[in-house]
UniProtKB/TrEMBL annotation:
Its EC number is 4.1.1.33. It comes from Limosilactobacillus secaliphilus. PANTHER family: DIPHOSPHOMEVALONATE DECARBOXYLASE. This is diphosphomevalonate decarboxylase. Pfam families: MDD_C (PF18376), MVD-like_N (PF22700). The keyword Lyase applies. One of its GO terms (cellular component) is cytosol. Residues 7-162 form the Diphosphomevalonate decarboxylase-like N-terminal domain.
Length: 322
């Protein structure tokens, strides 16, 4: 009747940008991500037969029922799968800035799916838990697992799920998040994707780019080649963000500090320091590198950005129950 789960955020190294089914959240392409240790969400789901609707509290603040559409979609799926009709009290605590391009929705809906399924007595394999989390947020399908994770595009609900490529990394891939702006973004990921798919003249080419990037990224991971992983991730991110500029109307998630961080990483690369950047739907920049170079990179970044805004992230775990 009650369960608590923790799920960590993930950052896509090969991006998913666009859906072909808005209800089931079926993506246009495969994607691949790294689950991050420092950022996570804890969620408790408690069934209460006296409730007339689900109730949600996030960080101590009650959420208006009119803003619970995606939560209700997950909870209704859980009720359907479990053949129960009682509503629940949902309490969620975020240890990650929301709506700032740090994948708070990924950890939030992965934790909700895991806690909800357990509270309602579902014994789901992780593949099915991944499918359930996908109903709330596409990127949540990957946060069920730790480490490096691939989300298969699939062709329907059953075939679109994530699976781990390497849950426990045995090589030195790490990430530094540069928190240039943690306020809510002006264009939501969902809205930005819809506009891009509908209006960008380059979207067809993007799907072909992702197919090639996925193949190259899987080979780079197999070889544990951090430089190749970083290079592919950086180019893939730039091409994704080029799509937003090519939409009608065009838009960007970058701000001045985003560009400053990108130029700084370019300068470090030119100086022979192997590090690479990637950005999701938000201004914050994530730097990929070999952990042997962490101190040097932190020092160089700290010369430009407040060290308090630099967060070192190693590979995080999959969903756990508390």
């Amino acid at each position: 009747m009650k369960a608590t789960a923790r799920a960590h955020t993930n950052i896509a190294l090969v991006k998913y940008w666009g859906k072909r089914d808005q209800e089931l959240i079926l993506p246009q392409t495969d994607s691949l991500s790294l689950t991050l240790d420092p950022f996570y969400t804890d969620t408790t789901v408690e069934i209460d037969p006296t409730l007339a609707a689900d109730q949600l509290s996030i960080d101590g603040n009650q959420v208006d029922p009119s803003k619970m559409g995606k939560v209700e979609r997950v909870m209704d799926t859980i009720r359907s799968w479990s053949q129960q009709n009682h509503f629940a009290r949902i309490t969620s605590t975020n240890h990650v800035p929301m709506s700032a391009g740090l994948a708070s929705s990924a950890s939030a809906f992965a934790a909700l799916a895991a806690a909800g399924a357990k509270a309602y007595g579902l014994q789901l394999a992780r593949r099915d838990l991944s499918r359930l989390a996908r109903r709330g947020s596409g990127s949540a399908t990957r946060s069920i697992f730790g480490g490096l994770v691939q989300w298969h595009r699939g062709h329907d609900d059953q075939s679109s799920y994530a699976e781990p490529i390497m849950e426990k990394l045995d090589f030195g891939l790490e990430m530094i998040a540069i928190l240039v702006d943690t306020s809510a973004k002006k264009v939501s990921s969902r809205g930005g994707m819809q506009l891009t798919v509908k209006t960008s003249p380059f979207y067809k080419a993007w799907k072909e780019v992702v197919q090639t990037d996925m193949s190259n990224m899987l080979a780079a991971i197999k070889d544990k080649n951090i430089n190749a992983i970083g290079h592919i991730a950086q180019e893939n991110a730039l091409r994704m963000h080029a799509l937003t500029l090519s939409a009608d109307p065009g838009f960007t998630y970058f701000d001045g500090d985003t560009i400053k961080a990108m130029h700084l990483i370019d300068d470090l690369q030119a100086a022979g320091i192997n590090c690479y950047y990637t950005m999701d739907a938000g201004p914050n920049v994530k730097v990929l590198y070999d952990r042997r170079d962490r101190s040097l990179i932190l020092q160089r970044l700290g010369d430009v950005f407040n060290p308090d805004r630099l967060v070192v992230a190693s590979a995080g775990p999959g969903v756990t129950y508390l």
